[in-house]
Amino acid sequence: MDKKDDDAGTSYSSARSSSHCMSRRSTIFIVVFLFVVLVCAGFLVHFCWPGAKEPSYPEDHDIRLPRSIFPVSYELWLQPFINGNFTILGAVNIVINVTIPTDNVTLHISDIITKNETVTIHSLHDLDGPGIRIKKQSYDHEKNFYVALLEEALEPGRSYKFHMEYEGYLNDQLNGFYRSSYTRSDGSLVLLAASQFEPVDARRAFPCFDEPAMKATFDIHIARESNMTAISNMPKINTTAFGENSQWMWDHFGTTLPMSTYLVAFVVSDFQHVESNYNDHIKFRVWARQDAINQTWYASKTGPQALSFFENYFNISFPLPKQDMIALPDFSAGAMENWGLITYRETALLLNPVGYSASSHSRVANVIAHELAHQWFGDLVTMEWWSDLWLNEGFATYMAYLGTNSVEPDWNVLDTFVVTDLQNVFALDCLESSHPISVAVEFPNDINQLFDDISYSKGASIIRMMNHFLTEETFKAGLTKYLNVHQFGNAAQDDLWQCLTEQGRADGTLPEHLSVKTIMDTWTLQMGYPVISVHLSRDGQATLTQKRFLMVNTSVSTDTHDYKWWIPITFTTQDSPDFSVTKASHWMPALGSSYVIDGLPTNQWHLFNLEQTGYYRVNYGVENWNLLINQLQDNSSVLSLVSRAQLADDSFDLARAGELDYDIPLQISSYLEAEKEFVPWSAALSNLAYLENMFTRTRGYVALRNYLLGILIPLYNDVGFEDNPDDTHSLQNKRVLAVAWTCALEYSDCVVKSVSSYANWMANPTKISDISDNLKPTIYCTAIARGGEDEWNFAWSQYRLSNVASEKATLLGALGCSREIWILARFLEMAFTEGSGIRKQDATRAFSAVAANDVGRDLAWDFLRNNVMWISNYLQTFTAVSALVTDAASEFNTPLNYQELLKFKSDFSEELGSATYAIDQSIENTSNNIAWMDNYYDYIVNWLHDHGYE
Ligand SMILES: *[C@@H]1O[C@H](CO)[C@@H](O)[C@H](O)[C@H]1NC(C)=O
Ligand SMILES: *[C@@H]1O[C@H](CO)[C@@H](O)[C@H](O)[C@H]1NC(C)=O
Ligand SMILES: *[C@@H]1O[C@H](CO)[C@@H](O)[C@H](O)[C@H]1NC(C)=O
Ligand SMILES: *[C@@H]1O[C@H](CO)[C@@H](O)[C@H](O)[C@H]1NC(C)=O
Ligand SMILES: *[C@@H]1O[C@H](CO)[C@@H](O)[C@H](O)[C@H]1NC(C)=O
Ligand SMILES: [Zn+2]
Fold this sequence. Notes:
Blueprint: H1 9-17, H2 26-40, E1 69-80, E2 87-98, E3 102-108, E4 113-114, E5 120-123, E6 134-140, E7 145-154, E8 159-169, E9 176-183, E10 189-196, E11 217-225, E12 229-232, E13 236-241, E14 248-253, E15 266-269, E16 272-276, E17 283-288, H3 297-314, E18 322-328, E19 335-336, E20 341-345, H4 358-374, E21 381-383, H5 389-407, H6 413-429, H7 444-449, H8 453-470, H9 472-486, E22 489-491, H10 493-507, H11 516-524, E23 530-536, E24 542-548, E25 567-569, E26 571-573, E27 586-588, E28 595-597, E29 606-608, E30 617-620, H12 622-635, H13 641-656, H14 663-670, H15 678-695, H16 701-719, H17 729-744, H18 748-763, H19 776-786, H20 789-801, H21 805-815, H22 821-831, H23 843-851, H24 857-866, H25 868-875, H26 879-889, H27 895-907, H28 909-912, H29 916-946
Parallel strand pairs: 1-11, 17-18, 18-20, 21-22, 23-30
Antiparallel strand pairs: 1-2, 2-8, 3-7, 4-8, 5-8, 6-7, 9-10, 10-15, 11-14, 12-15, 13-14, 16-17, 19-20, 23-24, 24-28, 25-27, 26-29
Helix pairs in contact: 1-23, 1-26, 2-4, 2-6, 2-17, 2-19, 3-4, 3-5, 4-5, 5-8, 6-8, 6-13, 6-15, 8-9, 9-10, 12-14, 13-14, 13-15, 15-16, 16-17, 17-18, 18-19, 19-21, 20-21, 21-23, 22-23, 23-24, 23-26, 24-26, 26-29, 27-29
Membrane topology: Lipid-anchor; GPI-anchor; Single-pass type II membrane protein
Subcellular location: Cell membrane; Membrane
Binding site for Zn(2+): 370, 374, 393
C-alpha cells in the first residue's frame, strides 16, 4: 500500500511533525509537503480510516484463526446494490483442507449478516449427501469470528466445501467493499463501488480466512447493472444473463493464482479505460472516470515500462495475464497493490495533460513503481504475518526509486532518496518513543499502526544499505532466489536473510564470519540508529565508537537495552576523494567499545558513510569538521552531492542533540550561498526549517529571517520566478524551494509577483494556465494570505469547479493560508461537515493546512480539543484524531503547550487506545522543543548577531 500522503496533509505532517523537516509557514508547508511527498511518494502514516474503530482486546488475546483447517479455493458471488439500498447480496463456497481433526469451522466475518439456514458443509467426496450437521452457529465479535460448531469432526487429509449466503453493506468508510461517488461534468451524481482490504477488511466483503498466510485461489463472480463495468484481479471470462432481470448481468472472472485475501479486489463503476500494448504478454489498462480519462496518459505509458523493468530486475515474468490500474475518487491510502488490479487515489495516478507540477509528476511515477514492485514483493511472495509488514513496504518503497529511475533516468531520483526517505525517518527514529521496525502485532488496530514511516522509510533505508554493502549483483541474485523459492507462498525476514547470505557467500561479497541475519537483526529488532564518532590520531589511526543517536538524552529513561549495531563502514579522504565504492570496506561489530582503522592520511579531511548508504550518522573531531567546512566553502563540488546533503543533515541534528557546537552547522549553512544543487539545498532547508519554526513566535525571528534570505536570495535570483516546464526536473524542484521559502519569508519580489499572478487569474478565471503548476501552491497561498474574503471565495469556487485532483489538493491546502480567523474557523467547520463540498478523505488535509498556518495554529488546536467527539464520529476513527494532534502540535515549544498535550492525552486515553503512540511522540517532541529553546535559542541569536544579523 502506498501511504496516504499527497493530498492528505495530516498524514504528511504527522510523519514530519516531530521532525525538523517541516516549516510551519503555510507556503513552505505546502510546497515541502508536495515536494517531499511527491518525490518520495510516500510517507505517511496510514492514520486515517484504519477501519478498526476503537480497539477492543479479547480477554484471551489470541485473535488468530485456529490452524486446524485452511482454505484451498473460494468461489465468490456478489451482487452490490450500488444504485439502490447499498446492500450486498453474497454467497461463498470455500473448499477447505484439514490438518488437525476439529469440530468447528472458524473464519473471519465483520459487518456481515449471515443467513444461517443457508450454511452447509459437505465432504468433497459427497457433495450431494446431506452434509455435516451443524450444532450451533455463533459470532465472536471481538475477534471478528464466525464459528460453526459441528456434530461430527472434520478429518485430516480430507477436503470439505463450506457454503454460506449472507448480506453485506456498501459502507462509506473507504474500507471493505465500499461505495463512492463523483459528479459528472453535466452535474449528475454517479455512484460506484470499490474494495480496499489491506490489512483486515476483506472480512467485511465476504466470510474468509483473513490472514496473509492463508493463501487460496479465488473465482469471483459479480452481478452488475448493464450500464456499469466490473473488474477484478483476473480477466473477465464471460458475461451471462441474470435470471429474468435484463437490467442485471453476471460477470465471471478467471481463477486467480494462490493469493492472500487482503489482495483481492473488485470495482464496479461506469469508468472508461485506455489500453496499452507496450508489454507483449500483458494486457495493461488504466481506468478513470470519463471526465478524467485524458489524465491517464502518463500512467499508461509509465506503468507498462516499469512493469517490464521489474520483470527484468527480478528475473521473473509477471505471472498474471493482465494488469489494471484504476483512479478512484475516494480512497483511503495513496494506492493499493491488489494483484492485477491496483487501486489509486486520483492524485497518485492521474496527470493533467495540459499542465502538471514536477512534484505531481514524480509522485505518480513513484507510486506506480511502488505498487508494481509489490506485484512480486508482497503479492507473489507475501509476508507470513503483519509483523513483517516493514519488509513488504520498505522493499516497495526502495524499489520504487529503482523503477522510477528506469523510466525517468534524467530525474536522478536515487540521489533524492536521502532527503525524502532516509533523513526524513532519521528525524523520527531518534526519539525515545520510536519503535523497532519489526514488531510483534496481533490486533487489527495495532496492525493499522504499522503503516508508518518507520516501516516505509526506515525499511527502505536499511534495504538500500543492504543493497550497497552486498553489491548490486549479489542483492539482485539473492532476491530472485528468494522470490522463486517462496512464490505463491509466504516468508518472513529470516527467509530473505537466508537467501541473501547464501548468495553473498557464493559471490564472496559477505565476510565469512558474518551472516546477513547477524547484521540485519541489529537493524530490525532494535529501534533507533547509531551515530559513530571518528577520532583520528596524529599517526593516522582512526578510532570509531558507536552509540545510539537520540535527539534528547533524558536522564529518566528506563530503557536499559545496550544498543549496538553491525555497521558497514565506507570512507574516503581528501587526497583521493572517491564516493563511488559503497561496498563495506570494514565491519564495525555490534560488540566491544571501539573499532580501529589504520593508515588514514592526516592533515586532510576524511568523510565516512559514503553517499549516506549506511543508516547512521557520523560525527568527527572539530578539526575534521573545519577541514570539511573549508572544502565546502572553497570548492564544494569536490564532495558529492549526497555528501553535501549528508554533512548538512548530520551536523544540524548532532548540534540539536547537543553532540556538536551549533557553530559548525551554521557555518555549513553559510556555504549554501554558492550551492546550486537541489539535494543539498533540500537537506539544509529541512533543517533550517526547524530553526525557523522554533523562532516564529520570538523576538529573534527577524535576525534569522534576514540570515535565511541572505542565503536564499542568490538561489532565487539564479532560478527566477518564471517557471519553464522545459527546465530539468531538478531545476524545477529548486525553483519550487526557492520561491516557497522566499515568499514565506515575505521577500517582497516574490510576494508581489505571487499576488499579481493571482489577481490576473481572478480577473480572467479561464486563463488558469498562466500560473505555472509548480508555483501554484506558493502563489495561491501567498495571495490568499495577503488577500481577504474575495481571494478566498475565488479559490473556493475554483476548488468546486476543478476536475483535476492535484489542483483540488493544491487549492484545498491554500484555503488554509488565510489570515482571517473567521474564514479559517468556517473552513475548519466545513472540513468536518458532510455535504460541505470537502470530501471526507480530504478533511484532515484541510485541518493540517490551517494548523500549518501561523495564524491558524492555535485556532486549529482549540477546534480540535473542543470537537474531538464530533471529529472522531465524522471520521469514524480515533486514530485520525491523533494524527490531527500531531499536526497541530508540531511546533509546540512552551510549557503551556506541553501541559495541554498531557491533558489531552489523559482526557481521551480510553478512546485513543494504541493511537496514544502518536500523542506520545508529540509530547516527547514538545518537551524536546522546550529544552531546545532553553539551550540554543540565545546561542543562535548571538551567532546571528556576531555575523551581522539583528
Ligand atoms: C435492498 O434491496 C434489495 C433489492 O431491491 C433487496 O433484495 C434487499 O432486501 C434490500 N435490503 C434491505 C436491507 O432493505
Ligand atoms: C475450533 O477448533 C479448534 C481446533 O480444534 C479449537 O482450537 C478451537 O478452540 C475451536 N473453537 C471453538 C469456538 O470451539
Ligand atoms: C445466525 O446465527 C447467529 C449466531 O448464533 C445469530 O447471532 C443470528 O441471530 C442468527 N441469524 C438468524 C437470521 O437467525
Ligand atoms: C487439499 O487436500 C486434498 C486431498 O483431499 C489434496 O489433494 C490437495 O492437494 C490439498 N490442497 C492443498 C492446497 O493442500
Ligand atoms: C445505471 O442505471 C441505473 C438504473 O438502472 C441508474 O440508477 C444509474 O444511475 C445508472 N448508472 C450510470 C453510471 O449511468
Ligand atoms: Zn506499499
